[in-house]
Specification:
This protein is mostly beta strands. The protein is globular. The chain is built from two helices and ten strands, in the order ββββαββββαββ. The strands form two sheets. Strands 1, 2, 3, 4, 5, 6, 7 and 8 form an eight-stranded mixed β-sheet that branches. The chain has a two-stranded antiparallel sheet with strand order 9-10.
């Protein structure tokens, strides 16, 4: 099984394009801090995230550079030659699930507001109150009302 759980901050705004098949494809970068710095090793790992369909469209709508998110999906490494001729390596994740997490307040922003769900300040303003947005492993992105949790059998 190949599945990785990442919590980090976006390194760039999500970019959405439409593939020839008509499906939307959203890409963004995620910086994940390490708990401990290794001697001579960077203390941040960078991942390229790709999300398809409604999952990616919602990420593009609610996430921005610097916002915190949790991304779940399979991870694959890729070696390639950089433009300068040096060997490079990238870690790529196809998102199966994305959760919007509260971010630390920036200057002039109030940070994550109260209420249910995982949103940064910008998404909180435009997202319906009491809703949490999550994508399933099927690439679909759905909203559920947290008041429905009382009716769950577990």
């Amino acid at each position: 099984m190949n599945k990785i759980y990442l919590i980090g901050n976006l390194t760039r705004d999500p970019e959405t394009r439409t593939a020839q098949s008509g499906m939307s494809v959203t890409k963004f970068g995620l910086a994940v801090n390490r708990r401990r710095k290794q001697d001579g090793q960077p203390d941040v790992d960078f991942f390229n995230i790709t999300a398809f369909g409604k999952l990616g469209e919602n990420a593009a709508q609610y996430l921005r550079k610097g916002r915190k998110a949790c991304v779940v999906g399979p991870c694959q490494g890729e070696s390639f030659m950089g433009k300068d001729g040096t060997p490079k390596f990238s870690m790529n994740v196809v998102a199966e699930d994305i959760e919007f997490l509260p971010s630390a307040p920036r200057d002039g922003e109030g940070g994550a507001q109260g209420g249910g769900g995982y949103y940064g300040a910008q998404a909180q303003q435009s997202a319906p109150q009491g809703k949490t947005y999550q994508g399933g492993g099927d690439g679909k992105f759905s909203a559920f009302d947290e008041s429905d949790e009382d009716e769950l059998p577990f």
